[in-house]
Write a structure and sequence with these properties.
By secondary structure, this protein is of the alpha+beta class. It has two domains: 105 residues, 2-Layer Sandwich (Phosphorylase Kinase, domain 1); 122 residues, 2-Layer Sandwich (D-amino Acid Aminotransferase, Chain A, domain 1), CATH 3.30.470.20. Helices cover 28% and strands 33% of the residues. The chain has six helices and 14 strands. Strands 8, 9, 10, 11, 12, 13 and 14 form a seven-stranded antiparallel β-sheet that branches. It is globular.
Length: 252
Amino acid sequence: MARRKKIYEGKAKILYEGPEPGTLVQYFKDDATAFNAQKKDVIEGKGVLNNRLSEFFMGGLAAIGVPTHFIRRINMREQLIRAVEIIPLEVIVRNRAAGSLAKRLGLEEGTALPRPIVEFCYKDDKLGDPLVTEEHIIAFGWASQQDLDDMIALALRVNDFLSGVMHGVGIQLVDFKIEIGRVWDGDYQRLIVADEISPDSCRLWDVKTGQKLDKDVFRQDLGSLTDAYSEVAKRLGVLPAQATPIKPTLIN
């Protein structure tokens, strides 16, 4: 097999040159990180689960008219995606107080917010992905006011979709983050959802028990991360209900 050209490697994924112009191959790693990579581990099967779950969510968004970079899943760990120019912002939507928001504002974790709140963080690991305002974003040229309006609209549509899907399987969508990229059709620019949507990028709590089914399991040493992600996948029908956690030996 010809050696593929690596385009970029992040904490959880690797991007390789795609088979056709304008495409990339996104590979999901088993690496888990928290606290700006101060805590690290390798969790067997995590990348496989995130690949399948992100495929499920991206496909669902496309079905309701939300544009994404996802083209198709290639195998257990890889997706074919559209190459985009990533806007250097994390777009966070919060439905309940948790994590940094709860700490910043002195709110009890789990407090329902009066409405979904959209926040932006500047993507820079060395700076710890700091929270930024719309004024910062426009002043530094990361996005225009029209881009911001479109990003907020996209994020809220994703929130509506994810909240409904999760509620249907007994899971509370507490918050999530997405990345958004620019693509061009001729001279016309569009913004589309990129990166991934998985328990790595969402806070997910069981509606009845409050059990955490997301990366907080790893952050807070609450048990098996693979078991938590597998539970989400089983409830969504991505894995058979009786399936055992995915192991690397199953990877093609």
